[in-house]
Write a structure and sequence with these properties.
Layout (H helix, E strand, L loop, with lengths): L14 E4 L3 H5 L12 H7 L3 E5 L9 E4 L4 E10 L3 E6 L10 E4 L3 E6 L8 E9 L2 E12 L5 E10 L2 E9 L9 E8 L6 E7 L3 E4 L7 E10 L2 E2 L10 E2 L19 E7 L4 E3 L5 E10 L3 E6 L2 E2 L6 E6 L2 E6 L8 E9 L2 E11 L1
Parallel strand pairs: 3-9, 19-26
Antiparallel strand pairs: 1-9, 2-4, 4-7, 5-8, 6-7, 8-9, 10-11, 11-14, 12-13, 12-15, 15-16, 15-17, 18-20, 20-24, 21-22, 21-25, 23-24, 25-26
């Protein structure tokens, strides 16, 4: 990580200064109980610059580093003659095997080659000169990836959904958890896909799963350092099966469509010219299908080559081929089925 080397002009909000009265420092006076050779007034009189600490802005809030990072803190200070600078960790002396300190004329450097979580805590720099003292505190937090959730289980499966539950990790990596990442993988491809990220609860329902596939699930914990290195996987697979739909038909009464013949469109009287073919039309409705009989002047003309009769979808037609003067008269169409009969007629005149 980068070393903190740029000082701020103004002291940080955590700066604490303990010093004697300025008046005593500038114009020391000898109390009646002090002799002329007392060392304290002589020392204060020799001060050229009182001790003071400039705390860099980045160190005024909790200073966070990852496990294995280098910690290099340079804290500028002032004071003449050269003050005595000392460090403490959680109000105790520093561990010389882990932390090294170098004090210069105008700064003090605290160095940790590979930070570990045990190095977290409150570091205090004290600069003393005579009876005056300036202090500054730095909160160092060394973090690492969290441990995985302790367990995960498949609670329920229905339709295309699966409900999961898990327990928080036993080790958060010395930092607050940012949430959980849930992933799914179907047994066909074996590839893991992220369902959601930074989810804060410990239960979730995964939806829109594909019917016919089987799924496994896993959950990662996440903090400022990233995701946990491992993740527990559900012991049971979620089998998404197609629901079997049973259709029940309601009974109904069979309707009887039987009907006696009934003409819905009658024949129409017409006048034609000798030698020109003429057609007669009518329509009939009946069930079962009726038998159609054509008559001329009450005489059956079935089989006569001069006439051609057709019936299609209830429409009855009669073609009179090149009629002559004696082909005029009353034409009748009769429909007959087992339920009854009906007939219509018209007059044809040949000019």
């Amino acid at each position: 990580m980068e070393a903190v080397t740029a000082p701020e002009v103004a002291p940080g909000p955590t700066l604490k200064v303990k010093e004697a009265s300025p008046a005593d420092a500038e114009e020391p006076q000898i109390s009646p109980r002090q002799g002329a050779g007392s060392p304290i007034p002589q020392l204060l009189a020799s001060l050229e610059e009182q001790p003071k600490i400039w705390l860099p802005r980045a160190l005024r809030q909790t200073y966070i580093r990852k496990v294995g990072d280098t910690v290099n803190l340079r804290i500028p200070f002032q004071g003449k003659p050269k003050p005595r600078a000392t460090w403490t960790h959680n109000s105790c002396a520093l561990d010389a095997s882990r932390v090294s300190v170098r004090n210069g004329e105008q700064d003090s450097i605290l160095f940790i080659r590979e930070a570990q979580r045990v190095d977290s805590g409150r570091y205090q720099l004290s600069v003393q000169l005579g009876g005056l003292e300036a202090t500054a505190t730095i909160d160092l937090l060394v973090i690492e990836r969290p441990g995985p959730p302790q367990s995960i289980k498949l609670v329920d499966v229905w339709d295309s959904n699966a409900t999961l539950e898990w327990t928080p990790p036993g080790d958060t990596g010395n930092a607050e958890l940012l949430g959980y990442t849930v992933q799914k993988a179907d047994t066909k491809s074996g590839l893991w896909f992220t369902v959601l990220e930074r989810y804060h609860r410990t239960s979730f329902t995964v939806s829109n799963l594909i019917i016919g596939n089987s799924y496994a699930f896993r959950v990662f914990a996440e903090n400022q350092c990233g995701l946990s290195e491992t993740a527990p996987i559900t012991a049971d697979l979620a089998h998404i099966q197609k629901a079997v739909t049973v259709y029940k038909t309601k009974g109904f009464a069979q309707r009887d469509f039987s009907e006696a013949p009934k003409f819905t469109q009658p024949l129409v009287n017409c006048t034609t010219v000798t030698g020109y073919d003429t057609q007669l039309f009518c329509s009939v409705r009946a069930s079962p299908k009726p038998k159609i009989i054509w008559l001329r002047n009450n005489m059956d003309i079935q089989g006569n080559p001069k006439y051609r009769a057709l019936t299609y979808l209830g429409i009855c037609s009669l073609e009179i081929r090149k009629p002559g003067p004696f082909d005029g008269g009353i034409y009748t169409c009769k429909a007959v089925n087992p339920l009854g009969e009906a007939s219509v007629d018209c007059r044809v005149d040949v000019m």
